[in-house]
Amino acid sequence: MRKVFGIISLMFTITLLSACSMLPWSSSDANADTNDEEINGKAVRADAGNEAEPVAESEADAEKKSAFTDTPPATTIPDIAEVEPGSLSGENYDEELLYDALDQESFRDKSAREVYNYLLSMIGEGNRYEEYYSFFESFNPNITTEVSNTPGGMQIDGSELVIPNRNVIILLDASKSMDQEVDGATKMQLAKESIDQFLADMPQDVNVMLRVYGSKGSVDKADFRESCSNTEVAYELQPYNRGTFKDALDSFKPTGWTPLARAISDTAEQLETGENVENILYVVSDGLETCGGDPIKAAENAHSDSTKTVINIIGFDIDREAKDQLQSVAEAGGGEFETVNNSDDFLQLWEDERQRLWSAWYDWENENWSNVYDEESEKSGNLLDMKVDVDSIILDEHVRLNDAHFALDTGNRLKGEIDEKVQAMINEREEILDDYFDNLFDSYKNTLDEQGDSLRDAINEKGDEMMEKYN
């Protein structure tokens, strides 16, 4: 019996061992299937008889590893603005989600850079700064409003008012018909008196010229050529001097024909040209061109050539035919046409012109002051709006970074020296952003204020001066 029992026990053991060798978790298969190793810091699986292959890493693990980078932090605005914003930055910020994420991480073994970069990957604003960076880089703080030319032809050069050479030319008809009497005095006497009074009220920086035509020869046919071929300058182009100008007015008498076209052409040939030159011609005449010239064509040429002469016509006691011609001359010369019939009309004409100039200066001052103010206000407003917006973003980011850092610090999850370095990086980032936007904002605002004030002051000063002159 004992022998039989031994044989049965032996057979049972052999059968049991054979069955175990067929199970999937037998020792030989386990070594082949589950012998995981780490090569170069990466998880790999080694199959029996084969080279080790990497084990696939989950997206969540990859994101965690990428957040803990040891790369140097961005220290310039362009670099900061190129970084993708954090997953919980801006309007996506959620304090509970942030703290949950922090609780799931281990920071004790991380460097200061790794901790700082991780926090930025969560709540850094990154390229949300790009809009503000681009705005401040391209902002033009200069006042670009073009101040219109004044009634006296003033122009703007940068922030300074440029006074051009203003030339007022009186072209006086000295033909025989101007010797006729009106209201107890000759037309010539009335014209001379009113012209002298008008010029006496002109600004001191105006240059004046007096040219006369028809003062040579007589109305006889024998003197036609002499009278029609001559115009003369009685007062050279220069600042107005009343005594000298009166002497010039007394130096001629009305005697001959009416070479109006030649007088306009001769005058235009002598006038200055250039961007800062203004030529205004006042023609005082009592009749038609009588020398065969084309005054309309002459006026058109003078107005369109380099002198840009503006030709105003004052018709003195004229008939319908003369009025039609002289009005056409004024239109061709880009000027105005007025008629006077007696001494009162003549005086009123110059008074109206004085009032017109006063009103023109008043309108000029108000319009241009407002235009400069509007541009400065609009630019200052846009600048301030963008500054307030970016300041809010900088502040929100800094507060959130500090809160997250404080949570790690109070939880004793950072080493002492790491804690200090992270705080320094957070503070440095805020300082970089604040300094950039503060410095540009202050510089731009100062430029706007200085240029705006300078231009408005210059406009006010010149406008008030000229209105006082014509008052």
UniProtKB/TrEMBL annotation:
Question: Which UniProt keywords are given for this protein, alphabetically ordered?
Answer: Signal
Residue ranges occupied by any VWFA domain in the UniProt entry: 167-357
SMART domains for the chain:
VWA (SM00327)
**SUPFAM superfamilies, per database record:** vWA-like
Record region (Disordered): 44-86
The family database entries (InterPro entries) matched by this protein are listed as: VWF_A, vWFA_dom_sf
UniProt lists compositionally biased (Low complexity) regions at: 69-80
Q: Which domain of life is it from?
A: Bacteria
Show which residues constitute the signal peptide.
1-32
Q: Which Gene3D superfamilies match?
A: von Willebrand factor, type A domain
**KW Signal (keyword) present:** yes
The molecule here is called: D-amino-acid dehydrogenase/Ca-activated chloride channel family protein
Which organism's genome codes for this protein? Answer: Aureibacillus halotolerans
